[in-house]
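dude i think i finally got it to work??
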Amino acid sequence: MNRGRFTLLSLFLYLLVIQCVNAHLIPSGNGAIEVKDRKVSFLIGVPVSVIAEFDQNHNGFLDYEEMQQKEEIFAKLNTVFKFTSRNESVNITRQELFASPIKDQSSTAPQFEWLVQYVLPELVAQSLPLSIEIDRAFLSTNYNIQLTYGNISEATIITYSHPKHIFLQSAWSTLLDYFSYGFEHILNGYDHILFLLTLLSSGLRKRRWLLLLTSFTLAHGMTYGLSSLGVVSISPNIVEPLIAFTIVMVGAMKLVNIQLELSQECLLIFCFGLIHGLGFASAMSNNLEGIKQFPLETILGFNLGVEAGQLFVALCLFVFLYFFEIKKRVRMAISVPTLFALIASVLGLYWLIQRIFFLE
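look at this
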């Protein structure tokens, strides 16, 4: 029995045996699905904010007495979380609520645990894939959900922009899902964007851009893949400060006018790309807590999404530089490359200090 299945089985045995819960069964925003024969069991840590109207004493927690409104709470939860198999509603056979004590939630989001069990209308082999959809109105936090089906383990992130996920679908569909995750990740990664803007803006030459982007892409694709497969593992406490250091370096090199040969610059950016790739893998591992290895299509899809995001950033930068630097449509006291270098140096140094001394 692999580690994921053993952990999941232990979790459900605990649920069946222990009636009084003394701690979180599963972190808020995390979920676990186990498929066995026709039976599907789903356990998720739900923030209390999802059913805030049942918090009658307005203390931000769901007390034992408040949880006696089970039927009403179940009705609300089943409007927020929708489960289907081949677009058909499922037949829920059991639901349970488990309250976490207030003392256990002093440093975490107030939550409770919800167990749902249902039986598929046909044999599992004929009823897959399975899907879960969460109402956007209640997606103030991301939900990280792992499904186990025999020897298959699949994980996903439910976000505001991706409120629905279909499990056990084709490899191509999974690749497309993770492509969108990768694209979204790079657009939300302000440190990575600032690195690219500072690097590329210092010399608007097609050959330079092509070689630098290729070097950076090959490097971070390599370490992202190795890290996602569990071959390489480095603590975020080391990787995140190093990423900030690369940003400071590209900004400082521009400000002090350090000129490198293109081959030397490509080698340096390749080394920096190795570090950024570890950061991408760390981000995905943090989002999918407890999942150490990912199927090939998720790795490839996420990486391709990151590359597409980088190309989009480069295209936007080209348009920006075209009007501000080439056409001189807007007069500025300093050049755009110098402005980016200043921002990178200041923010990079701030992130470096923050990540060394304050990163948990």
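Residues 296-326 form the longest helix (31 residues).
im so relieved honestly
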